[in-house]
Amino acid sequence: MSALDDFKSKLPLNVRKSIRLANEIETRQRPTASIGLNHALNGGIGEGRITLIYGSSGSGKSLLMLQSIAEWQKQGLICGYMDSEGTVTREFAARLGVDIDSLIYWNKKTFAGATDAVLPYLRAGIDILVIDTYSDLLPEQFLENDGTVKEFAGNKMIGAHARSTTIMLNMLHTEIQPNTSIIMMSQTTTDLSGQHAVQVPHGGKKIEFKVSAMVKLISSRFDSQQIKETVEGTKIPVGREITATVMKNKFGPEMRIAKWNMYYEGDKLGIDFDKELIDLACVYNVIDRGVTGWMTWHDIKAQGANNFLKAITPEQRNEIKLELETAMYSVIHEEVE
Fold this sequence. Notes:
alpha/beta, Rec A Protein, domain 2, 2 domains, ten-stranded mixed sheet, three-stranded antiparallel sheet, about 35% helix, globular
């Protein structure tokens, strides 16, 4: 008899029958719309976990989530979107590929209203829940008993937002089901407690402790940093580069970085998946890129990314993606070992 069996024999029968071992733990992740971010997270957004995505205004948080929802819906997953900011429009979501006829949608303005609205869906096992953003939710301390907002002079309450964030997190964490992925989004605020000013998410330290993964998105809104296209002889901004840094990750290495081009206007709305795929495939030597720009993959050879994309079929593109993922994740596993 092993030491574990001997220990089990000393337990009450009802406890012995309900004992659970660590080998029963399952870790599953859902890929987002960015292949680079999936790699940085070592697989994607965790199931049964809360993930925090934060960044300044215009860093593409909502766009990333809506485009990811479009991919998750293709897999038959049930998705819900808590839109406290009024970000989502039917036209914009549909252009990103979202099935708006099956996307569950809420528009709440307070922590209590948002939390109470989503709890029944969590208990029912909704697959994806996005909260965009809890930074914009109003703490209940600012409301009268009838739900109206208090007079401005009576709203001087330090730490109310952080306390409300903590309560919301605790309730969501308690009710989350093993199959559910919760993604909370936040704007950034400035932490001046150290020697240098640091951009951190809203909600105090609790949010950093409670979530399983934290992703920080950064982009520039300077005109010189925008991706531009010529329309009727005039160059207009249509997108920008996004940098994502994994600040915390219980599924793999931290401080990994992913970059992609995000388009907010024009035909390439959303993440430029093709550019991201080709760039990463060249980095991981799935595609051989010569100094003169010639790209070679098996028997296919073309000069420049645009010509290469025209030369491959959708099936071959998927093959490149599979080869790339194999190459990327093998590197992560070697580093972890």
